[in-house]
Write a structure and sequence with these properties.
By secondary structure, the protein is an alpha/beta fold. It has five helices and seven strands. The longest helix has 19 residues. The protein binds adenosine-5'-triphosphate (ATP) and magnesium ion.
Length: 193
Amino acid sequence: MDALDVESTDTDGTLRWGALLAEALRASALTEFVIDLRGELGAGKTVFVRGLGRALGVAATVPMPSPTFTIARAYALPGPLLRELHHLDAYRLGGPDELEAAGFEEMCGEGRITCVEWGGRVEAGLPEDRLLIECHHERPLARAGAGQHPEPGVWAGDETPAGRRRLAFSARGPGARVVLQLLASLSNRASEA
Ligand SMILES: Nc1ncnc2c1ncn2[C@@H]1O[C@H](COP(=O)(O)OP(=O)(O)OP(=O)(O)O)[C@@H](O)[C@H]1O
Ligand SMILES: [Mg+2]
């Protein structure tokens, strides 16, 4: 399967899609995977990664903030197959060179799930086999006063338009295709339950 389009009606819905992807990843038995998240400011990329991380075993007591200012954050996972989650935000990176300089190679590989927000900014530095997730919200941002460019990554609950987001998943390689197929089956099962 190459593509799947779904809707999320609220923040919890996006967290649940992240958790469902964690389930699909586990079912795939893949031991490394890269997720490329795109979409407007405040579209829900960080929320999605949080849902994924919690379901992969990042304890609720461990904060999972946006990595916009630190560029990357790493979380230990309980394993045995998946041992680290890396959450990277490429919003402030100038391109693939800066991705490499940020240590991207060490964030990928055996035992690691690697999530890259604003992956389009560093596309040439990403592995081909990855899952692309495009997050969209339909209404304009209600943030920070008219005409101001909003700061990325620091959304408080009341600053973004609440509600519906569209999540468009597309697989860019064989591993991602397997995971996406599993995600589609799990979501069918969830909606039938
Ligand atoms: N359906 C929804 N899915 C995800 N987030 C939602 C939804 N409805 C409202 N929200 C709110 O929108 C905000 C999304 O913020 P988030 O940090 O995930 O965006 P982002 O895409 O990572 O933005 P940035 O590009 O600035 O990093 C949160 O405050 C969240 O509570
Ligand atoms: Mg973000």
